[in-house]
Automatic annotation (TrEMBL):
<keyword id="KW-0460">Magnesium</keyword>
<dbReference type="GO" id="GO:0005525">
    <property type="term" value="F:GTP binding"/>
</dbReference>
<dbReference type="InterPro" id="IPR029057">
    <property type="entry name" value="PRTase-like"/>
</dbReference>
<dbReference type="InterPro" id="IPR000836">
    <property type="entry name" value="PRTase_dom"/>
</dbReference>
<feature type="binding site">
    <location>
        <position position="200"/>
    </location>
    <ligand>
        <name>5-phospho-alpha-D-ribose 1-diphosphate</name>
    </ligand>
</feature>
<keyword id="KW-0547">Nucleotide-binding</keyword>
<dbReference type="Pfam" id="PF14681">
    <property type="entry name" value="UPRTase"/>
</dbReference>
<dbReference type="InterPro" id="IPR034332">
    <property type="entry name" value="Upp_B"/>
</dbReference>
<feature type="binding site">
    <location>
        <position position="194"/>
    </location>
    <ligand>
        <name>uracil</name>
    </ligand>
</feature>
<dbReference type="InterPro" id="IPR050054">
    <property type="entry name" value="UPRTase/APRTase"/>
</dbReference>
<dbReference type="GO" id="GO:0005737">
    <property type="term" value="C:cytoplasm"/>
</dbReference>
<keyword id="KW-0328">Glycosyltransferase</keyword>
<feature type="binding site">
    <location>
        <begin position="199"/>
        <end position="201"/>
    </location>
    <ligand>
        <name>uracil</name>
    </ligand>
</feature>
<dbReference type="InterPro" id="IPR005765">
    <property type="entry name" value="UPRT"/>
</dbReference>
<feature type="domain" description="Phosphoribosyltransferase">
    <location>
        <begin position="6"/>
        <end position="208"/>
    </location>
</feature>
<keyword id="KW-0342">GTP-binding</keyword>
<comment type="similarity">
    <text>Belongs to the UPRTase family.</text>
</comment>
Amino acid sequence: MGKVYVFDHPLIQHKLTYIRDVKTGTKEFRELVDEVSTLMAFEITRDLPLQDIEVQTPVQQASAKVLAGKKLGVVPILRAGLGMVDGILKLIPAAKVGHIGLYRDPKTLTPVEYYVKLPSDIEERDFILVDPMLATGGSAVEAVNSLKKRGANSIRFMCLIAAPEGVEVLQEAHPDVDIYIAALDEKLNEKGYIVPGLGDAGDRLYGTK
Ligand code: URA
């Protein structure tokens, strides 16, 4: 079963409160999502492997750590996932960025792929799949399916807010995918919104309705 990690760092929690606030306008919302994404990227990269190199300091030669060069991929689920990408790339600028676009079939209500573009060396990369909201879990499950069927074998899912229903659906479908969140909310409402949530993440990021 995939593990769920809640990033409860005070800065993340503080900023998330203002992201939730209906009074927060588009510009500030986008800036806060960007900042929280950077902070979450800091937490999610804690286990990156290091290697020793020799460095000449002004004082003497020393052995010191650098990242071992693990290949990372960041994949936003369109469109709201885009709001998290730049914040993550601030800390891991060498990561490649893929994109997955899904729409909801009006008849079956299931998510259907309409756009997928991923780095070519998929098998060698560790992917961070991002979407601000894990609601029903349908999109997250389909996006992981998309990645896996093209060869990805290391995937983590990162979002701002999750509903228990979405966590359960993703864990059931993909027990190998760990889930990283800033908050686990109460439930979904009858319209599929997370409660208390933050409303429609895409609309709030891009000023649409
Ligand atoms: N997607 C959103 O943007 N918000 C929700 O509450 C649920 C799904």
